[in-house]
Each structure stands twice: as C-alpha cells, then as structure tokens.
Amino acid sequence: MTTSYLAAVCTDLTGPSSVEILEQQTVPLRSGEVRIQIHAAGLNFPDLLMTQGKYQFRPDPPFVPGMEAAGEVIEVAPDVESFRPGDRVMAGGKGGALAEQWIVKEAAVSPLPAALSFREGACWQTAASTAWHALVERGHLQPAESVLILGASGGVGMAAVKMARHIGATVIGTGSNEEKRDAIRQAGADHVLDPADKDLAAKIKALTDGKGVDVVFDPVGGDLALTGTRAIVWNGRYLIVGFASGAIPSFPANHVMIKTYSLIGVRAGESPRRDPELARRQSAALRELAAAGVMQPYISHSIPLNETIKALTVLEQRKAIGRVVIEMKTSS
Ligand SMILES: NC(=O)c1ccc[n+]([C@@H]2O[C@H](COP(=O)([O-])OP(=O)(O)OC[C@H]3O[C@@H](n4cnc5c(N)ncnc54)[C@H](OP(=O)(O)O)[C@@H]3O)[C@@H](O)[C@H]2O)c1
Ligand 1: does its nearest atom lie under 6 Å from the Cβ of 176? Predict the structure, then answer.
C-alpha cells in the first residue's frame, strides 16, 4: 500500500478557489475503520457551502470536503467483520471523500450494488436517501397524489423526480433552462415548468384540476418557496429540504392556517442517526431501491480530482444537471 495519496484540501473559507490538491500521508487504521481506494466521489451542494464556511457543519481549514464516494476496500481494521480488501463499496461521511483514499467507519460503508457503476455509486447515497426520506418517511407521498419538485434538475431534485415516479405519483418539476427541463422530462416528470414563470402557481393549479399539489419538495427556498405554498392543496404537505437559492424563506403563519397545510422539516442524515429503527428501515429501503436501479443518477459532469475547483464552480454557477462527479486516476 502507498504511504501517500492526493486529496483536494480546502485551505481557506473563500470558496472553490481555496481548494488545493495536496499530498497526504496515510495513517494507521483505528478500531472499526475501513480504508477505501476511491474511484469516484460525488459532489454535493454542501461541499460548495463548506468551502465558503456557510454550511451548518463548519470544519476549520485545512480540511478535505466530500461526503460520498465509491471504490474498493484496500485495508480493514482487525475488528471489521463485514468487509475485506477487494470489496466494491460505496461510503458516506461528513468530509474526506475528495481524495484518492478515504478512511471511514464500517457502519458508513455499504456494498456497491451491481446495478451501479463506481461513478453512479459515488453520487447515489445522499440524493437517494434525501429523496426517499423526504417523500416516503416525512411526506407519505401516495400513488394517486401529485407532487411539485422544485430544483428538479439538481442532485436531490432529480432523485426526487425518480422516486416520486417510482411511487406512482403525478410529478411536476421546475427547471430554469431548456436543457434542464429536457433532463427533468427524461427523468420521468409528467410536467415541467420554468421556476421564473410569473404564472407558475396558476399553471400548477391548472395541472391539478384547480386544487394544487398534495406535496411540495423544496430544496431551493427563497421566493420560489412562497410560490410553492400558493400552489399547494388544502391540507397539503410542504417538505423543507434545503436552500440552494441561498435565501431562507419566512412562511406567513396566517397562510399556513388558512390553507391548513403542514410545513415539514427534512433531515435525511440526522433523523436516522437519532432513531435506530428508522435507520434500519431507511437502509433496507435504500438497499432494495439501489439493487433495482431506482434513482440511477444522471451525471452531467465527470471531472478529474486535479480540477476540483472547476467542478465546484459548475455547482456554484448553477450549471450542473443531476450530479457532478470527481474521478480519481484509478477510476474505471
Ligand atoms: N435536508 C436534507 O436532508 C438535505 C440533504 C441533502 C441536500 N440538502 C440540500 O438540498 C439543496 C440542494 O442540494 P443539491 O445537491 O441537489 O444541489 P444542486 O445539485 O446544486 O441543485 C440545486 C438546484 O437548485 C436550483 N437553484 C435555484 N437557485 C439556485 C442558486 N441560486 N444556486 C444554485 N442552484 C439554484 C437549481 O435548479 P434550477 O437552475 O433549475 O433552478 C439547481 O439545480 C441544498 O441546499 C442542500 O444543502 C438537504
């Protein structure tokens, strides 16, 4: 095994340009740890926010961003039972994935299903678990219902389109340009609209017999969130997933009361950490969905590790469709 490897290191909190590719020394494994030779890592919006010091989890520089990756196990601690060198796996964590090697706890590793390539496995877990947790666990979306997915061309948005489609609901997605709208259609949305359309709420109502959608999935926030509440049905469920627009909306309490809709917070990672039974349920559901190829990611950009700045800039400039993946030299 090599004694050093390359990693994308955030050396300041000034955004993507503060990332440098630096050599790191390997360290011995501790109890319960697995060392993975990473083939590909998936970029997520929080990776960008972390380089700007704007994410809820705020590590001090220098740190290696990256929350998920796929690759091969190259070493396990003596007490690790479920994996051995050579296993193809995917893994998640709070940072460290934008590197040729990653040390993670055994519990954070899962087998890479045959249905997913390394690149797909690298960007499957976060988006898929968010979509499942929001729509199934928090939103209780039903086959006969309708759902509005804002930011539907993004990582979690596109997974949500595919999950909602799998459930059998009627899916309305928003995308800010024609290329994004095409991709959302191909992902399975029944209707696709422009989030900047002045008549967005009216058009959504027209698509739902004047009633409005049963569920809104919102990873965008800002003014679009308030438009979303105007397009929701009486007694609807509004899923607060994230704030990719950079603006946290304030929902008027009188409107929530008048239309009796529910505002529902979504924490796809934290909720299962606090509830072991949910953790088991969520992992089992995701294992089945992964094996069946549901929520197969659409990857618009595959970029080598030494161009991580470019990859983060794609997210910053809102140019990604589906997922952006960082590929290591070892990738296949
Ligand atoms: N609650 C949870 O458990 C959880 C889990 C994972 C992620 N998240 C959150 O979900 C959000 C989306 O994450 P993601 O990985 O899907 O991000 P992403 O791939 O960058 O997608 C975000 C989408 O939001 C839309 N958008 C609107 N205004 C934007 C702006 N000013 N800048 C960038 N995008 C903008 C874009 O679509 P258009 O251009 O078509 O508008 C874009 O496709 C983030 O806030 C993330 O932190 C939450």
Answer: yes
